[in-house]
């Protein structure tokens, strides 16, 4: 027998435990992301139990960076003021020892954005979440956990690896699903100190919720609502039944 | 017998009358709010019968401020250009005698935002809509009606008070519900000159629509669509059956 | 017999062919639009099979303009940085011979916006999509196809005209439906070189999808999800059965 049955049960249990802590503690998660991704990212965090904040105004970012319990830095549609807010926020997070996640959107297509993303790696993201092309372009070294998402999600870091199956093809036809997923990793980091575990459990929750929502939805329009409904109600039994390694 | 049955029937009737006027007159309502709140705020106003506009560009705001029939000033995610647009718009509204509503988002957590919110009170908002912590921090004096929302909504001003029950716990798991509600107060102010009545009726409509939508929705993902559908169809009979004082 | 039966069948077939090419080729469509319109515009493009990008940052726009296969310029909520991005992008599109669509939102209400829109006409939009009041204010001359949308959509240009019926009254109670429709015209331009055909087919797809979604939706809240679901699944048989000339 292979290791899968025990391992998958273990990850399903860890994911259920993270979700329980998230719902009980309702941590604040600050999200610096593109305007197109803000509504779904905020709603996913609220559905999961976290409290999102999203100000990217340089004059306000310090107050949020001093209080947040996790941070998302998403580089999609990177406007100058958000870039400045990121540069102000990261040293504060670093000093406070609070985890942040980098989502290097489309760094494979913009040299300027790639150079900026590389400069941010000095501030030690706990997790980098990207698709395969973005991860290959960025090639983050060092301690960060790498969560490469696609048909199979691949989590690697700290000498460990995990492959997760699940999700649904409709997810590729809904905007901001990637950024929203990065937000859930950040929320899990707020309640789970091990970055590999937080990233793996968040992606497992997304894969299971996405698979169930894809069965319920009538298309890409009804998918997001179904997805948030499922995620909000996701429990240990469902995770144990549905979790699959890649 | 207590005053409740007669009073609640009266408020239900007033709310139905406001909704009828709103649908008949389709007033323009300008909304200066955060990017994350814009889609739901616009859709709530459209569902209720108003015509929203949302430009926060300082170079364009004068034209909108000269024509709008009500204005929302929401301080969430307050970027510098929107701040400038607010400062330009309010004297125009004041001169025209057009009502505006202040939504002092998170002033309890940001001293800079609190100071800005206080400076805006000089321009006489018709209504301040906030949660209890924000209202306590701002402590608006003067003539403004105060609408403090929560499990029970509390409207106070001009020597009158009213407490409203209703709504649904799922509303706390959907982004921008507060801002969207402030937008409805502004829309009601465009068709109802008494600010206390406008605020109370708007919150009553939201409480009833929220309660019904919460019964229909499968979770926080499907809640917003259900909420807008219910609000769009809300009629006097439903209001009379469902309205409840706090 | 009038020309309608043959003509409508022909347009339904052309529309089905455009949709097939769009789904097969998945062109990149860059959309410079207002923040309130971004989520629905992105989701409509994804539902239809295109790949949207939306950066309006002047420092990044060149890279996107060099790669995109079509462009939307929407003037709603026109902030200074997006205005600058538009001015940078259009000469690149012109040099590359890539089609773009102008959506002159509310130029009938803002002289400054009208002047800016007029200056953009020098860069030869393939299509101008507007409501009747905006089109009358802008009065574009030259080669551009004009798509005037309303209860009946009127497409004119290159010596040809076409009137299309369909859609649903709920579409007027959903924000950003106009901008999202402009996005679909751009997506069709990426796979169909004749601008009149691209505009007519895109509006036909929207009219049929809107009519069906209006029958399924419970109100303006549930309309967008139904609309995207229908558009995603729209096929030649449905188009042939439902297409109607105006």
Fold blueprint:
3 copies of one chain form a homotrimer.
Chain A: H1 4-25, E1 28-32, H2 38-48, E2 51-53, H3 58-67, E3 71-74, H4 80-96, E4 100-103, H5 111-120, E5 127-130, H6 132-138, E6 145-148, E7 153-157, E8 160-164, H7 177-189, H8 195-216, H9 223-233, H10 236-242
Parallel strand pairs in A: 1-2, 1-3, 3-4, 4-5, 5-6
Antiparallel strand pairs in A: 6-7, 7-8
Helix pairs in contact in A: 1-8, 2-7, 2-9, 3-4, 7-8, 8-9
Task: Give the biggest sheet of chain A.
Answer: 8 strands, mixed
Span between termini of chain A: 16 Å
Shape of chain A: globular
Lateral arrangement of strands in the main beta sheet of chain A: 2-1-3-4-5-6-7-8
H/E order of the elements of chain A? Answer: HEHEHEHEHEHEEEHHHH
The proportion of strand residues of chain A reads 5-15%
Give the rounded overall mean pLDDT of chain A: 95
- List the uncertain runs of chain A: none
- As a percent range, the share of helical residues of chain A equals 40-55%
- Biggest contact: A-B, 28 and 29 residues
Instruction: Please provide the count of β strands of chain A.
Output: 8
SS-based class of chain A: alpha/beta
Estimated radius of gyration of chain A = 17 Å
- How large is the count of helical segments of chain A? 10
Oligomer: homotrimer
């Amino acid at each position: 027998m292979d290791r899968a049955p025990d391992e998958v049960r273990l990850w399903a249990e860890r994911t259920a435990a993270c979700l329980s802590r998230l719902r009980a503690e309702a941590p604040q998660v600050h999200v610096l992301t593109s305007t197109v991704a803000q509504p779904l990212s905020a709603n996913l965090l609220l559905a999961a139990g976290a409290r999102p904040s999203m100000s990217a105004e340089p004059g306000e970012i310090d107050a949020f960076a001093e209080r947040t319990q996790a941070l998302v830095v998403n580089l999609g549609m990177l406007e100058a003021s958000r870039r400045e807010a990121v540069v102000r926020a990261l040293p504060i997070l670093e000093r406070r020892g609070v985890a942040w996640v980098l989502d290097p959107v489309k760094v494979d297509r913009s040299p300027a954005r790639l150079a900026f993303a590389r400069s941010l790696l000095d501030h030690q993201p706990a997790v980098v979440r990207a698709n395969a092309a973005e991860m290959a372009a960025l090639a983050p070294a060092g301690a960060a956990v790498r969560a490469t998402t696609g048909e199979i999600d691949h989590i690697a870091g700290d000498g460990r690896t995990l492959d997760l199956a699940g999700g649904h093809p409709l997810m590729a036809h809904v905007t901001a699903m990637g950024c929203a997923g990065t937000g859930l990793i950040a929320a899990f980091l707020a309640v789970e100190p091990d970055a590999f575990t937080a990233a793996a459990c968040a992606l497992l929750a997304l894969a299971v919720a996405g698979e169930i929502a894809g069965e319920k939805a009538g298309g890409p329009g009804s998918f997001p609502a179904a997805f948030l409904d499922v995620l909000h109600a996701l429990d240990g039994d469902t995770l144990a039944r549905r979790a699959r390694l890649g």
